[in-house]
Amino acid sequence: MNLILFGPPAAGKGTQAKRLVETRGMVQLSTGDMLRAAIASGSELGLTVKDVLARGDLVTDEIVIALIEDRLPEAEAAGGAIFDGFPRTVAQAEALDAMLEKRGAKIDRVVRLKVDDEALTARIAKRFAEQGRPDDNPDTFKDRLAVYNRQTAPLLPYYEAQGKLVEIDGMGSIDAVSGALDGALA
């Protein structure tokens, strides 16, 4: 099964993806984690990514798609992928569909975690205070949230038209969201 967890930064996608990795053996393909790894590597790509994220912008489709494609064989071997933070645009969704189709696969389900923007801002401020991730700076986050909302809104009708979109309340406890997610995947 190939699953997309859809929602803005701090919606809980990473938390739920990690649980699915543990319970279902799937591979989490988190663009955020992959981008942070690129930054930590100190490579030229990492420095470019660091600059883009510090401005609150999104990295180019080409960079993200290349990172995803590199990890697909691992996900296929595990029986499925959880796409976390990808796709963010219709162009990325179309590229993902084409990439998977070439491999004889598809996206089976898209789960949107619905959350409140004010609650997200509070989550980010807490995470920034606890973890100090530069991309979680509360001021930068407002820009990231605005970019996310503007660029990803078209994905809802894209996946709804394919009959793959399921929406769940992402504002509950981790266990409540997990239960709703399990129901959406059943």
Description:
The protein has 186 residues and is α/β, with parallel strands linked by helices. It has a single domain, classed as P-loop containing nucleotide triphosphate hydrolases (Rossmann fold), CATH 3.40.50. Helices cover 61% and strands 12% of the residues. The chain has nine helices and five strands; from the N terminus they run βαβαααβαβαααβα. The chain has helices at 13-24, 31-41, 44-54, 61-78, 90-102, 117-131, 138-152, 155-161, 174-185; strands at 3-6, 27-30, 81-84, 109-114, 165-169. A five-stranded parallel sheet has the order 2-3-1-4-5. Helix 2 crosses helix 3 and helix 6 crosses helix 7 (138-152). The protein is globular, with a radius of gyration of 16 Å.
Lay out the secondary structure.
Layout: E1 3-6, H1 13-24, E2 27-30, H2 31-41, H3 44-54, H4 61-78, E3 81-84, H5 90-102, E4 109-114, H6 117-131, H7 138-152, H8 155-161, E5 165-169, H9 174-185
Parallel strand pairs: 1-3, 1-4, 2-3, 4-5
List descriptors.
five-stranded parallel beta sheet; cytoplasm; transferase; 186 residues; Rossmann fold; alpha/beta; Adenylat/UMP-CMP_kin; nucleotide-binding
Q: In brief, what are we looking at here?
A:
The chain has 9 helices and 5 strands. It is an alpha/beta fold and 186 residues long.
**Any guess at the CATH architecture?**
3-Layer(aba) Sandwich
User: Portion of residues in helices?
Assistant: 55-70%
Q: How many domain units?
A: 1
Write out the CATH superfamily name.
P-loop containing nucleotide triphosphate hydrolases
Output mean pLDDT: 89
Strand content: 5-15%
Q: What is the C-alpha radius of gyration, as a whole number of Å?
A: 16 Å
| Order of strands, widest sheet | 2-3-1-4-5
